[in-house]
Each structure stands twice: as C-alpha cells, then as structure tokens.
Amino acid sequence: MVKPSRSASHPQTAGPPDVDFDRRRAWLITALIVTFMVMNYADKSVLGLAAVPIMKDLGISNSTYGVISSSYSLLFSLSGLIVGLFSRRVTSRLLLFTMAAVWAVAQLPVLFVATVPALVAGRVLLGAAEGPAAPMSMHALYTWFPEDRRGLPSALQISGAALGTLVAAPVVTWLISAFGWRSAFAALAAASAAWSLLWWKAGHDGPYGQDHPPAHGPGAGQTARVPYRRLLVNGTVLGSIAGAFGASWALALSQAWLPVYLRTQLGMPPGGAAALISGVSALSFILLLAVSPLVDALSRRGLSSRWSRGAPQGIAVAVAGLAMAVFPFVQARALLLVLVAVAFGAHSIAFPLHYMTTAAVTPSAQRGAVFGIVAATGTLPGLIAPYLTGRLLDSAASQSAGYTQAFLLSAAVMLISGLIALGAIRPERDARRLGLPTAAAGPAAQSPPSA
Fold first, then answer.
1. pTM score of the predicted model
2. What is the torsion angle, in degrees rounded to the nearest 10, for the CA atoms of residue 93, residue 94, residue 99 and residue 100?
3. Engineering a disulfide at 7: which of 17, 148, 174, 245 sits with its beta carbon 3.0 to 4.6 angstroms away?
4. Rounded Cα–Cα distance for residues 19 and 205 (Å)
5. Using CA atoms in the order 415, 45, 26, 151, what is the torsion angle rounded to 10 degrees?
6. Nearest to 6 by CA among 286, 15, 213
7. % helix / strand / coil in the chain, to the nearest 5?
C-alpha cells in the first residue's frame, strides 16, 4: 500500500502539494528566531533597568526620562507598517539581517556621548529597526511550518520576550553595577552584530511562504486574495489589535517604569528588583509555553477558534488589568508582589494568540503585510504609556499618587481592550465572510468529520 503524502492527509497545509516538512531545518530557524526575540526584548529592557543611574548621572526629571523612553516608539509602528507592506518583495533573510545590524549601530551613540540627545537618537533608531521585528520574524517562522504545526513555534517566538527580560534583568543589572550603565549598551551591540552574521549564513525563507491553489476543483489555478480594507475591518483582526493594544500597554509600562517603581517606591535594591522582574518574565514564559497545548486541547474538544484562541487572549489581558487596578492599594508585601507579577506577566499569552487569530483570516501571501499593520496599531502604547506616566509622576501631589494614577489608567485601558477582544474575535465566521477556507481557523475546524 502506498503511504499517503502529507499534502493528501492535510489538504489545509499552505505549501506546495509535494513539500515535505523539514523538521530539523524548521527547528533550527525557530531557535535562531527565538534568540532574535531575546535580543529584541533585552534591547527594549536595558533603558528601564538602567533608568535610576541614568536619571542620576544626567540629572533628568521623570518627564524627560519618559520622553526618552517613548522616543523608542516614535518610528516603531510606522516602520512596522512600511516593512510589512513591502515584505512580499524582500526575503526574510535580508529583512532580519538588516534589522539586527541596525540594532547594533543604534546602541553606539550613547557610548561616545552620554547625553539626552544621544539617548533619544539611539532609541529612535532602535525603535525604527525593531518595529517590524515581531511580525516579520513570525512571518519568517510561519514559512517553515504548515498551518497545523504553528502553535508551539508561535509560543516559542513570543516567549523570546519573556526570556529576553528573564536573561537581561540579572545580566544587565550586573553589568551596570560592575562596569557602569553604558557597558550594557555595548554588550547588546556586540550580541546583535554577532546574530546578524549568523542569520545571514543560516536563515532563509521556507516552503510555506505563499498561498498554493488546489490542483483540482473550484479555485484551481487561483490564489486567494482579499482587499486589505476587508481584511483589516473584520471583527477578528480588530479584536486581535485590541488585545495586543492592552497587552502592549502593560509591556511598555513594565519596560520603562517597573524597575524604577520597584527601587524608588518599594525600596528594593538593584539585585532584588532584577530578581522580581525575572520572576515576572518567568511567569510569562510558563504561560507562553502553556499556550500551544491549551489551544490544542480546547480544539480537540471541539471548541471553535473563537473560544480556543480568541477568548484566552481577551481574558488574559482583562485579568492582568484587574490585578493592575488592585495592587496599588494592597499593603501585604507578598500579595502585592504576586499581583505585580500577574499585572505585568499574565497578558503575555495575548501576543502569540493575536498573531494566530489574525493569520486565520488572512491569505498567507498577504500575511506579512497584515502582520505589520496589526503590529503597528497594536504597539502604539509604547509611544504613549511611558511619557504619560512620567507626566503623571511629575504633576501628582506625590510620587506614590502619581504611580497609583498611572496604574489605574493602565488597568482601565487593559480591561476595555480585553473585553473588546473577547467579544470581537470570531475567526470561523470572519473567514467565511471573506471567502476563505474555514479550515484556516483552527485545528478543530481542520479535522475531517468522523464517519
């Protein structure tokens, strides 16, 4: 008996009909992309971890530090949008190589001139180069995995954020304490340069990068394509953007102000603050690793993608928002630290799930552009939250009152975003409305009916 090919048993796979899944190569690319994301989030975190000595050495106010932190996001969303729109014309190999090389260059200004303009220039350039990083690396990852195997790679790619902070917090804090805060920028520049060379040698696009029409039947010889206006205004994409917006607000706040809050308000030494931040990242990492088996288990039970992929991201952001609203008023130290971890860590699963739900209603040939647009809008909080928090701190009656106001505002943003995601994300419904195969909406929908 002839063994059926993978394409025969899995007709929903978005790849050439005769392609064989190259497991070894796919997981090598995954390892490189996870490392890429680790460096990405270490770059983002370094300013917050060095905030106290930077503010002291340069004699700057909370508002000025907030401007420096928000400057990172000045071109972040725009660059993500532009690169996403042109992603079909440029290989992932060249895109990711260029991004990492620019990351290395962006760390250099402050090594020569330790001033506010130098910090702003470096952060603006870094943000412009990192804006496309998450969506384009996810797009590159998806070219190596068929649709029914993307859950774990997606979670691992996003877990680079948690690992980046988990590793960066103790290492960067040690570098700052031992050699001064500029040494951390130098170390990250060297790491980015080394990765870019390694990727140039080993990284390239996989076989699942484009839509491939069915060989027979309706649609033979045609490739699914949907006007971008229709792709971007359906409930699933808008709900995914909302979930990412709320999660990104918490992420931007944690990177810019959580280390400062722990040291100035809770009285933690540098090592203690780094340990807690690593603990928050560890919680995120554990939750991210649980995403794939959770999605698979819910799908096997027959749940639609609305409940297996959409609901978890909305609930996670809303729960984190509730913790954010409560912990400023808690006096018990242990409970306060637990709530801090939930507020800044529980939202993390929204990131891989919002890519998965967006991909479920997007033809793969248009996926890079849509990912770029979704990321550009979903990450706007990075431009708003750090600066707004600095202004609240400088205008409030006390630093404590300023932080309370900032956390309550963040809680409101996260709760609203989570509820919108919970109500709007319906991949199967929107895929049908767009004329796409509903099998794209999830493993449950992909399974053939039982006899």
1. 0.72
2. 60
3. 17
4. 14
5. -10
6. 15
7. 75, 0, 25
Q: What angle do CA 292, 294, 300 make, to 5 degrees?
A: 100
Q: Which of 45-49, 227-231, 246-250, 347-351 has the lowest mean pLDDT?
A: 227-231
Mark 253-288 as b/e (b = at least 16 C-beta within 10 Å): bbbbbbbbbbbbeeebebeebbebbbbbbbbbbebb
Q: Sign of torsion, CA 178 182 188 189?
A: negative
Alpha-carbon distance of 154 to 348, in angstroms, equals: 12
> By the 8 A CB rule, do 158 and 371 touch?
no
Residue 227: phi and psi, rounded to 5, are -55, 140
Domain range annotation of the chain = 21-209+226-446
Which structure tokens are listed for 427? 């991949």
- Nearest-CA neighbor of 368 among 190, 141, 172, 195? 141
DSSP-based three-state secondary structure for 362:
coil
Model confidence band, residue 210 (pLDDT cutoffs 50, 70, 90): low
Mean pLDDT of 101-105: 95
CA neighbor of 231 nearest in space, from 401, 115, 328, 372: 372
Q: Let me know: does 92 contact 210? Beta carbons within 8 Å.
A: no
128-154 per-residue burial string, b: 16 or more CB within 10 A, e: under 16: bbbbbbbbbbbbbbbbbbbbbbbbbbb
Q: What is the pLDDT of residue 19?
A: 59
Distance CA 175, CA 173 (A): 5
Task: Tell me if 382 sits within 8 A of 253, measured CB to CB.
Answer: no
pLDDT interval class at 318 (50, 70, 90): very high
The radius of gyration of the chain from alpha carbons, rounded to an integer in Å, stands at 22
CATH class of the domain at 21-209+226-446? mainly alpha
d(CA 369, CA 329): 43
pLDDT digits (tens, 9 = 90+) for 5-41: 333 333 334 445 455 677 888 899 999 999 999 898 8
| Angle at the Cα of 144 from the Cα atoms of 142 and 147, rounded to 5 degrees | 55
Q: How many CB atoms lie within 10 A of CB 245?
A: 24
